[in-house]
Amino acid sequence: MKVGDYLTWLRNSPRIEPAELLAGRPLLVIAPHPDDESLGCGGLIAWASEQGVAITIVFLTQGERSHEGSHAFPSHALARLRHDEAVSAAAQLGVSEERLHFLNLPDGGLGHMDDETLEAIHFSLLGVVAAELPPLICVTSRTDRHCDHQAAWLIAQRLAKSCGATALGFPIWTWMLDPQGDITVPPRRAWRLATRNPARKRSAIAAHRSQLGGVIDDAATPFVIPEALLDIVCLHDEVFIDDRL
C-alpha cells in the first residue's frame, strides 16, 4: 500500500467523541520522548483532564540525544531540561507532576534492549496501572519510522495484553512520510478525534521549547520540529489507530 493512500485512509477515518473513545477508562499515555504526548494526543489529554479522568503519562526516555554535540547542553543537562519541559507541558494539559513517570531509558536505544531490560520495563508499567482499572493506552504508532516510537508501540501492546487493556497508536512522524513510499501495515480501524481545546494543546507543544529552536544553538546535530508537522498536529484531528498484530 502506498503511504499516500494510507494517510488518506487515516484522514477519512470515522469521527469519534472522546467520551466514546475512553469509554469510562483511565488514560495511560506512553511517550518515547518528551513532546510525543503533546504532539500526538495533547487534545485528548486536555479533554480528559477537564472531565476528571485519571491520566498517567509515562516517558520512556528523556530525549537526551536530540541535540548531540552541544557544549551548552550535554546529554545530562539536556535530559534535565527536557524533563522540566515535560512537566511544564503536562501542566498545560491539566496533568500534575505526580501523574508523570520517567523511566530514563536510553534515547535512541529502545529498539536494542535485551530481554531482561524489556521484562523490567514491563513490570514497571504493570505497577503503574495496577491501582486502577485497565486503561486506554495511547502510544506512538507502529508506522512512525523512528526506532523508539516503534519500540514504544510494542511495549504498549505487551502491556495491554497483560492487563486486559486496549492500546491505540497515534501517528506523529507518519504524517511526514513520502506519499509515494510503501507502507506494510494493513489498515484495520482508526478514528479521528477533533481537538476540543487547541489552545491548550498548542501551549503544551510550546512548552517543549528545546525542540522548537532558539534554545540550543551549538549542537553538532541540531533538531527542530518541522513547521509542516506542527501544522498537521495542531490544525487537524488527532488520529488513533487500532493496529494490533
Structure description:
The protein is α/β, with parallel strands linked by helices. The protein has one domain (3-14, 27-242): 3-Layer(aba) Sandwich (Rossmann fold). It is built from 8 helices and 7 strands. The protein has helices spanning 3-11, 18-22, 36-50, 75-92, 115-129, 147-163, 198-207, 227-235, and strands spanning 27-31, 55-61, 100-105, 136-140, 166-170, 189-193, 238-242. The strands form 2 sheets. Strands 3-2-1-4-5 form a 5-stranded parallel beta sheet, with helices on both faces. α4 links the parallel β2 (55-61) and β3 (100-105). α3 (36-50) packs across α7 (198-207). The longest helix has 18 residues, at 75-92. The radius of gyration is 17 Å and the shape is globular. The chain starts with a helix and ends with a strand.
At CATH level 2, the architecture is: 3-Layer(aba) Sandwich
Strand runs, count: 7
Q: Helicity, in percent?
A: 40-55%
Largest sheet: 5 strands, parallel
| Count of spatially separate domains | 1
Q: Work out the strand percent.
A: 15-25%
- Which H/E pattern describes the elements? HHEHEHEHEHEEHHE
Please work out how many helical segments DSSP would assign: 8
CATH superfamily: LmbE-like
Structural class: alpha/beta
Radius of gyration from CA coordinates: 17 Å
The CATH topology is: Rossmann fold
Mean pLDDT: 94
CATH first level: Alpha Beta
The end-to-end span amounts to 17 Å
Low-confidence stretches: none
User: Largest beta sheet: what is the strand line-up?
Assistant: 3-2-1-4-5
Give the overall shape: globular
